[in-house]
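P.,

For your records, the input lines for the assembly:
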Amino acid sequence: MIAAAPSSTHLPIRLGMVGGGSGAFIGAVHRIAARLDDEFRLVAGALSSTPEKARASAEALGLARSYDDFAAMARGEARRKDGIEAVAIVTPNHMHAGPAIEFLKRGIHVICDKPLTATMAEAKKLAKAAEQSKALFILTHNYTGYPMVRQARAMVEAGELGRLRLVQVEYVQEWLTEAAERFGSKQAEWRTDPARSGAGGATGDIGTHAYNLACFVSGLTPEALAADLSSFVPGRALDDNAHVLLRFPAGARGMLWASQVAPGNENGLRLRIYGDKGGIEWAQEDPNRLWFTPFGEPKRLITRNGAGAGPEAARVSRIPPGHPEGYLEAFANIYAEAARAIRAHRSGEAPPAGTLYPTLADGLAGMRFVAACVQSSKRNAAWVAL
Amino acid sequence: MIAAAPSSTHLPIRLGMVGGGSGAFIGAVHRIAARLDDEFRLVAGALSSTPEKARASAEALGLARSYDDFAAMARGEARRKDGIEAVAIVTPNHMHAGPAIEFLKRGIHVICDKPLTATMAEAKKLAKAAEQSKALFILTHNYTGYPMVRQARAMVEAGELGRLRLVQVEYVQEWLTEAAERFGSKQAEWRTDPARSGAGGATGDIGTHAYNLACFVSGLTPEALAADLSSFVPGRALDDNAHVLLRFPAGARGMLWASQVAPGNENGLRLRIYGDKGGIEWAQEDPNRLWFTPFGEPKRLITRNGAGAGPEAARVSRIPPGHPEGYLEAFANIYAEAARAIRAHRSGEAPPAGTLYPTLADGLAGMRFVAACVQSSKRNAAWVAL
Amino acid sequence: MIAAAPSSTHLPIRLGMVGGGSGAFIGAVHRIAARLDDEFRLVAGALSSTPEKARASAEALGLARSYDDFAAMARGEARRKDGIEAVAIVTPNHMHAGPAIEFLKRGIHVICDKPLTATMAEAKKLAKAAEQSKALFILTHNYTGYPMVRQARAMVEAGELGRLRLVQVEYVQEWLTEAAERFGSKQAEWRTDPARSGAGGATGDIGTHAYNLACFVSGLTPEALAADLSSFVPGRALDDNAHVLLRFPAGARGMLWASQVAPGNENGLRLRIYGDKGGIEWAQEDPNRLWFTPFGEPKRLITRNGAGAGPEAARVSRIPPGHPEGYLEAFANIYAEAARAIRAHRSGEAPPAGTLYPTLADGLAGMRFVAACVQSSKRNAAWVAL
Amino acid sequence: MIAAAPSSTHLPIRLGMVGGGSGAFIGAVHRIAARLDDEFRLVAGALSSTPEKARASAEALGLARSYDDFAAMARGEARRKDGIEAVAIVTPNHMHAGPAIEFLKRGIHVICDKPLTATMAEAKKLAKAAEQSKALFILTHNYTGYPMVRQARAMVEAGELGRLRLVQVEYVQEWLTEAAERFGSKQAEWRTDPARSGAGGATGDIGTHAYNLACFVSGLTPEALAADLSSFVPGRALDDNAHVLLRFPAGARGMLWASQVAPGNENGLRLRIYGDKGGIEWAQEDPNRLWFTPFGEPKRLITRNGAGAGPEAARVSRIPPGHPEGYLEAFANIYAEAARAIRAHRSGEAPPAGTLYPTLADGLAGMRFVAACVQSSKRNAAWVAL
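C-alpha cells returned:
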C-alpha cells in the first residue's frame, strides 16, 4: 500500500450551510449537488432557527460543527484555520440577505438560493456587501446548469439562429391549484406569504427562473414588461399566475408565463427562441434533448453528448448520450462552477474560461423583474421599464 | 340488376364555388372536404377573376357550369331548377362579402372561408344580408371540426375541469420567416397585403383561428385584450407576430400567441385550458389525442374513438382509434355539419342536436378580435374591450 | 354561363363494389378513399350476401345499380356500355378470390382488400386469372400509401442508410385482448374464424401489413422466417400474437411482432430500419413525421411536405406541412395510384413513373408469409424458407 | 458551536474500488453513485493494472490508500481496523471473479459490475465463494434502480395487468455501428474481445441488462429462448446484434432485441409488458414516466412522485415530480440499497423490507442467458432451455 496523498487541487472545499434542516426540500438538493462531484465537503451548519432542530439535523447529517444561528457560525468559522470556505444559504427568501452579508463580510464565499432576497431594499444591501467583499457570490439559478441549456446559449451566441426575434418562456406548475398553504404544506405556507417570500408569488418562485433562463440563453435583457398577475385561489395574498409581455432591445419580443395553478403541469419550464435563421426549443422535463430548427432544413434533435452537441454542453456533463442526466446533475453543475471559481480565487486567478454561474447581477435582475411585474399589474398591465 | 333509386335524403347537395381556381390551396381543400362524406356535389363555379382561367379550371375539375364572375353565377344558378343549393366562397378576405351577400340574397346557403371579411364595414353589411336571408351562413373555422376538439368542449361543458381559470392558446408557423411575399409566393402576397387581407396579418390569418378555437372549447368569450403586434420582416405591412393577453368574464385569463415567423413550427395550433379541477391540452399537429389532467390523478390520454372519448367526438369521426384522421377530415366535418343543417332547413326543421358549425357570430367575433388587436397595439398594448 | 365540358381525362372512373354493406367498416373506408380525389364514382354494387340488405345499402348510398350477387354484377356490368371499369372487393378473406376472378375474366380492374385470399389454393387460382386477364389487380396494402412511407422507401433506395442490416417491424393492437368474438363483434367473429380468415389470425390480419410495409420500404424480401404464434384468449382458433424472426438476403435480419392482445395499443404499426450509414423510424399513429438518423449526425425529423421531404412523398400528399394527413388519405393514395394506372391502361400506356400500388405479387408474398408463420410455429419455430 | 457527533448510523461506509482508473467510464459512475446519498466514502483503491496509473488515479481522486493490485488491497484492507467494508469492482468482465472471490473470502462486501463474469466457469467459482462468505454480493444491474421500474414491478405484482401474456424488451444502441474497436476506442476494444468480455458481445453488454429488467419487472423467468445473433461489422468476433424469442412459464411469451449497430439509438432500453387486464410501457431515456394502459380505460401516464405513483417508487426517489432524475440517481439507488443491506448486516439483521438489489442469482441468470443465446444461435436459433 502506498498513501495516496491527495493533490491539494482536489481536496474538497469546506462548506457550511444555513437552513436546510430535516424536512426542507431545497437543503437536501444543495447537499447532493455539493457532493455529487466531490468538490465540497459539508462540515458546519446552522440548519434551523430552532437550536435543537439544528443540532439534531446536523447530527443526522454527520456534520462536524453545528451552530445555533448563522451569526455565531459566521464568527466561529471565520476564526478557525479549518473553517468553511463557502456557505450555502437555503432559507426562505427573507432570510437570504442577513446571512449572506454576514459571511461575505468575513470573506466566506456565498452560494445562495434564489430569488436574491424578499425585498429590493435587502437586495441593495446585499449588493453593497458583495461589492465590498473579496468573496464570491453565486446564485443557484440551477436551470442554467443543464448541459443542453449551455448548448442552446452557445448556439445563440454563435449566431446559428440569426438575429433574435422571439423569446417565449414558461414555467408552469400545478401544486398550488388548491389552497395547499391552508392544509399543512410548509412549502406552500412560506411561498404564499409576502413576509417570507416578498412581493412575488409565482413570479418570484418560478417566474424568476423562467426570466433568468430566457436571458441566459438569449443573451438579451428585456427593456420593459407588461404583466397581468392573478391570485386564483381565494384568500391567497400573492400571485399564483403571471402573464407577462416582454420587449427586448433591437425589437425582439417575448412572452413569459408563470403559473402554479395549471393541473397536469409538474415543473413545466420551457423555452423557445426564434431568430431570422432558426429556432431552438428546450423543456426542463426532457432536459437531455434540444431541438434546433434552422429555417428551410429538417428539424434536428441534438442530444446531450450526442452528435451536434458542442464543448459547452460536454463541459457540464458526466455520462454518455442516452443515459439521462437530470435536475440534480444540473444543480451540481452550478456547484462545480462555483468550485472552479473558488479554486481559481484561492490563487488569485480568474475562473477558467467558460465558467458560467449565476451572479449577483442575475439576482438583482430577478428582483427587478418581480418588482416590475407587481408594479405593472397594479397599473393594469402598463409597460414598466426594467 | 335492380335500380337502386337513391333515397332523396342522400342525394348530394348541389354546390357551387367562388374562387379556388387551379393553384389555390384552400379551394382544393374545400372541394375534398365537400366530397369526403358524399354530401355535396360541385356543379358550378366562378373559379377565378380571369374568365379563361375560370373556364380552364372548371373544365379540369369536370364542373357542369362555369361562370365568368360570381354575380353571373348567383343570377344564373338562382334561375335554374337544378341550380346550386349552397356556395363555397374561397377567395381572399376582401372578396368574401361581395359574393356572400349576392348568394344570400337569392336564398343560396353560403359556406365561407375565414376571416369573415377584410374590413369591419364589410362584415356589418354581410351580417345584415345574412339576417335578412333565410339561407344559412357557415364559416369554415375548420379546427373546431376535429373530434378531440369536440371532446374537449364537451368535457369543459360537463364541468370536468371545474371553474375555468386559464386559457392558453397559440398558433405558430414559420412560413413567413423570410419575405416570401417578395419571392413569388401568391399565398404570401395577398396575406401580407392590407388591401386584400384587411388590418390583420398573422392576427387575421391564424390568430382568428386560435381565438375561435379557444372560445369554442372554453365556452368563454374574452371581455378585453391587450396586444403587442410586430412586423419582423422589413417592409411587411401587416403583423407577422401577435402577443396577446386576454381577460375573460369571471376572472379567467389567457394568453394568445400567433406567429408566422417562428422557424420549426408548421401549423402549431395548441390549446391548453385549466380549471380548478383539471386541465386539458390539445395540439393540431397531433389531433387524435387529448390530454386530460384531473388535479391529483394520473394524467390521462384520450384518443379519438378510444376509451374515455364520448359521443360528441364519435359523431364527427369515421374510423377506429389508432387510425389517424387529420386536417381534411376535420374540414369535412364542418361540411358535414353544414349538410345536416341544410337538409334540416329544406324541411323547415332545426339542425339535429349537436350540430356545431361556426356561424356569422363567430365571424364577427373574429373581426372584433383583429380590430381590437390592432387598436390595442397602436395604443402600446393598452386594454381594449371586446 | 358556359358549359364546362369536363375533359375526358378527368371523368371519374366508374366503380363497383362487392361487400361493404351498411355496418361494414372497411367498405366505408374504400368508398371514402375512392371519392377523396374525385377519381372514381361508385355506380354499382353487390353490397351484401343478403339481397335485401344489399339493396337497402345501395339505396342508402345512392348507387345507380344494385345486384344480388357478384356474379350477376360481373355479367351485368360487362354487358353495359357504361358498365363499371373497376370493382372494389371488400368482403372477408374467403370471399376475395371468387369475385376477383369473375371480374378479371371480364376485363374489369380489381381493387381488392388484403390479405389476398383465405387459402393458398385460392391465391393460386386468382394469380392465374390475373395473369390471363388484361385487367389490373390492385391490393389495398394501404399503409404503403402514406407519404412518409414513400419518403422512407426513396431514402433507402437512394442509399442514405447505406447497406441495410436490420428491419424491425411491429403491428400491435389491443382489440382482441378479450374474446370479442363471443360478445357480438362481427369484425372479431370473422377475423378469428379460420373458415373466413384463413390460417392466419393476427398474422393474416395485421402481420401481412407489417410484412408488406417492411418489404416495401426496405426493398428486401426475407429468405426465411421462424415464428412463434400464440392464441392467448382461451378458445380462440387463430393466432392473436405472432413473434417472428426474419432473415433477408445478404445477411440483413429482422424481427416482426404482430399482436392483437396488447392493451394500450390501437394501431401501433411501427417500422425501424438500420443500415451501416443511418436509420429511419416511422409510426403509423404519427404518420406525418419520419425520423432519419444518419450515423454521427444529429437526428433529423422530416415532416410531410416539410424541409427534407422529397418528390416521392409530395406526389401522394395534398396539403401543406403541419396539417396532418391520415389513414384515409393514405388509403386514397392507393386509389389514386390505381386511377393513374387505369387511365394509362385505357390508352395502352404504362402507368406514369413513380406509380406504386401493391400488386398480386405482394398478395402472394403475404400468403407465403402467413403460411410460413403457421408452418414454422407448428414446427416449434423452425426456420421456413419463403 | 456544538460538535455534532455524527450518529454512527450515518457514518458513511468505507469503500474500496478495483478498476476505474482515470479515463474509465463506469468507474466514475460508481463513484458518483456511491457518493450521491452520502452512504459511502471511497478510501482505498487498486484502480489500474498499471501501478503508476493506479497511483496517479488514486492521488487525483484523493484516496487515502492506493494498492498495486487487488490481492494486495484485499490483504491490506482486511488487516486494518479502519479497512474498507465494501469494494466496488468495475473492471472488464474477465476481471470480476478474481477480485470478487478475494474480497468475499475476507468478509468484505462486494459491489460488482455486470455481467457477472466472462465465463460460466468463473461464475460458478464466484457463486461458491459467495455462498461460503458472510459478506454480501451486489450486482449493479442499475436499471432496476429507476423509481418507475420499481413502480412497474409493484403494479405487476399487485395484479394490475392481470395474468401476463407478453414481455417485449429491447436495448438498442448505435455506438458500434462502425468498427470503433479498430479506431482507438478502449471501451469498444474490450467489449468486442472474447478474452475480456466472454462469449457475448451485445448479448453480454446490454442484452443482460434487458433480460434482467424484463425478469425484474415481470417477476417471470423464461424457460427457454431461441436466439439469432449477428456480427454485422466485418471482423468483429462477438455479436453486435441479438434477436431473441422468449418463452415464459404458464404460456407468456416475449421478444428481446439487443443491438449496438442501430444508428440513432443511444441507450434505447425499453420494456413493454401486457397482461389480460392491462399493459405498461417504460423507456430508459425518458425514465420518469410510466405508461399504464388498463384495457378499456384511457391511457394513464404516471410520473415519478406524481399522482398514481406508489411507495415503491417514492422509496428510491429524491425530488418532486417534474424535476427529472436520471441514470446516476438510479445507479445510486443500487448503492443506497447496498448500504441499507450492509448496515443491517452489521447488526445481524435482514435488510429493511423493500430492499431490492440485484444479487448473485441475477448474475447467474444473466450468464445462463448469454450462454443460451450463443448456444441457440450456433444451432440455428433452436430453442435452448434456461
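Two observations worth noting. Residues 327-346 of chain A form the longest helix (20 residues). Chain A has two domains: 8-135, 147-318+360-385.

Regards
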